Amino acid sequence: MTRITSNVGRTLLNGIGGRTTEGQEQQLRTQASPPTIQRAVVVDVITDPAALTQENITNLKDNVSNPEIVSILPTNSVIAKIVSNNNGVSAQQNIVLFPMFSSHIMFPIKPGEHVYAIFEDAGYKNNKLGYWISRPTSPGTIEDANYTHYDRLWDPTSNPDNYSTGEEKDKPNNSPPYSFQNGGGTDETATLSANGLPPDTNPYDAVVRDARATPSFVQEPVPRWKKRPGELVLQGSNNSLIVLGTDRNGPVTDGNETKRDAAAIDIVVGRGRYKAAPGQYKPEPSKYATAPIVANTIRADGTTGQETDKATYRFRSQNIPDVGNPNEGNSSPAYDAARVLVTQQSKVDENYGIAAREYPKNTIKPVQPQATNGVGNSYVVGKADHVRFIARNDEDVKGTLLLIKEGTPNNGNIGSDPMTAAPPYVPPVIPGAPSTSTFQIPSNDAAEPSGSLAYIYFDLDGNIQLEGKNIIIGRGTDKKEPFVRWTYYNAQIEDLKQQVKTLADLVQQLSTAYETAFTTAIAIPFTPVASLLALGPSGLNINAGVVVPTVDKVKSSIDAINQEDAKSKKIFGE
User: Fold this and answer.
1) Is residue 194 part of a domain?
2) Which of 154, 284, 333, 358 is the most buried (most CB within 10 A)?
3) In this predicted structure, what is the pLDDT of residue 435?
4) Which residue range(s) make up the domain with 540?
């Protein structure tokens, strides 16, 4: 393979092109007006101007061509080296560039990446106030949302067309690591000058090594998003994505693009987070289906890392397509790390596997709602490894939390106060027995629950209100295990205790009376015992109208206790 060493396109200057000699090129550089947009290599990023010490500020002023603005830098300014027209290998100083856009929009940029720069005073000799617009888009075999090294453009392996038929067999069997070359690899084609650096030092490595912003950035493989024509996409450098488009579950060409009224906002992090080892491809199991092919990286100073392999054609593999994983970066509701989806029309329960999974018997199972008249399937979906909803509580704010399903109010179990729903039962009075309390058996005369309103409410004081037509805890849809309502249960138990106490008092009184009678009894054959006669009609004889009526009343009272009244008509469980 012939190595490309010329800086293609760098001889163009303000629309002037064609063949030029070296002398003519130099004359054009010095006489022509500077280009409207220039290219620069980022030497450092000022993430927090307030963190710069006075020593930092002094050093910076000494090493840039526009020191007068160093003390007023906005956040996300960059220190850059202009590399248009081979300025990168000249003795020209670095320059401070403000971000082109206001603080409402801040683009990511890292040391060693390229930016486009524009100057308000571009027609004058000295550029003082310049702005960096954005990182220019690189060819698809180089462009990476995480980190893009533009100079790979000069590597002939960055274009699959550079491989001849005969060279196909010479490709390595394993993925070769990506490097961070300086221009075309020769002094004549270098982007940055190595003057002042130790021998064999790559200037890009020195930039990344010395930049204050480098520790704040993590290099990692980030899957590429395949954009539909109508989508507005905002993508971060570390696998975070916001898409304003239409409902989408899978590839860009899954057919859903023709669906009307299906607007969606997709906020997702961690697409394709289950990755195979570098140079390997695992389309199965499905958790690997949307992951990028991973490649190793290495700098000249030995620093290693990983990134997405954008040129898998560089090596031979039995199962990796030359274009990499064809499903790379697509939406995967089941395996993407975390997502918030707002969609106008979708089948979320099917897309997320909610309706298809197995649920325990005797439970309410989620089903995919069906749209009526073209509407009715809008969703707000949140999925992550761990989900938290937090209502604030501090000295200034007392929070509440509400989860509600709208519907008609539930009128079931609404009626009289259960403690006044029935007349009280008065236990019988036994002569000589201590007085007893009066308890009442409430009547469960409330209607069956109705209405479709359901909600969970956490109020200011930490109380939790759970309301619904039927509340099922665990497996209880058959309603065979209703919960017991304490008010009814307590009244019944208290009344039962009173009846038992009444019987106990009666038995104790009878026992005492008979014990006394027999103790004092004088038995004469065939003669009544006087002490026992005392227990006759004028005493406590069981036929004397006291004991039998008392026992009968107790039995009736116990029989009147209906345990069904204590059963809840809306709360069920296991």
Assistant:
1) no
2) 154
3) 47
4) 486-569
